Amino acid sequence: MSETEVMEIIRNSLNELLRWVGFGTLTGLAAKAIMPGRDPGGAVGTMLMGIGGSVIGCGTLLFFWRDAQIDPISVKGFFAATMGAFSLLFFYRLLAGSFFAEGNEYDDRLAHRTRKRSRRRKILEDVIG
Fold first, then answer.
1. Rounded distance between C-alpha atoms, residue 63 and residue 103, angstroms
2. Per-residue pLDDT tens for 82-99?
3. Which of 13, 42, 81, 97 is deepest in the core (most CB within 10 A)?
4. Sequence-distant (≥ 6) Cβ neighbours of residue 37 within 8 angstroms
5. Are the beta carbons of 103 and 75 closer than 8 angstroms?
6. Residue 101 in this model has a pLDDT that exceeds 70
7. Is the pLDDT of residue 106 over 60?
8. What residues contact 70, with CB distance under 8 A and at least 6 apart?
9. 27 neighbors 82 (Cβ within 8 angstroms)
10. At 107, is the pLDDT very low, low, confident or very high (cuts 50, 70, 90)?
């Protein structure tokens, strides 16, 4: 193998890596736009979710339609990857428990009143003594 062949392999590998990073970021952002709210993870988490979503989405599509021709970096691939990233985000939130609020409305009102009284007491203590 000559030096030019090695450089060509490295250049192609880096190009492919940058394509996947960019594509993963776009699909992760699209999935977060579909399901707004507070999510953990910053840019790296969004990118990894998009890349994982692309593998899951395109893999699921190929599992159910074996004759499907899909390139992950295409319009069909973008849609499948976004749905895969959306499903990752959905199941993360489901398992993390952020869809369900524990307690009831009465508990929330009671806690609010208790905090309010505590704040008043602290203010009075500061003023008086």
1. 41
2. 898 889 888 888 887 665
3. 81
4. 93, 98
5. no
6. no
7. no
8. 58, 61, 62, 76, 77, 80
9. yes
10. low
**Mean pLDDT of the region 61-72:** 80
Output the six-digit token pair for 68. Answer: 């499907």
Euclidean distance between CA atoms 92 and 44, whole angstroms: 16
Cα–Cα distance, 117 to 85 (Å, whole number): 45
Least confident of 39-43, 47-51, 77-81, 98-102: 98-102
Between the alpha carbon of residue 53 and those of residues 79, 83, 87, 105, 113, the distances in Å are: 10, 7, 8, 36, 44
Which DSSP string do the residues of 39-92 spell out, in sequence order? -S--HHHHHHHHHHHHHHHHHHHHHH-TT----SSSHHHHHHHHHHHHHHHHHH
Q: Which residues contact 24 (CB under 8 A, 6 or more apart)?
A: 47, 48, 49, 50, 51, 53, 54
What is the pTM for the complete model shown? 0.63
Q: What's the rounded mean pLDDT across residues 58-68? A: 83
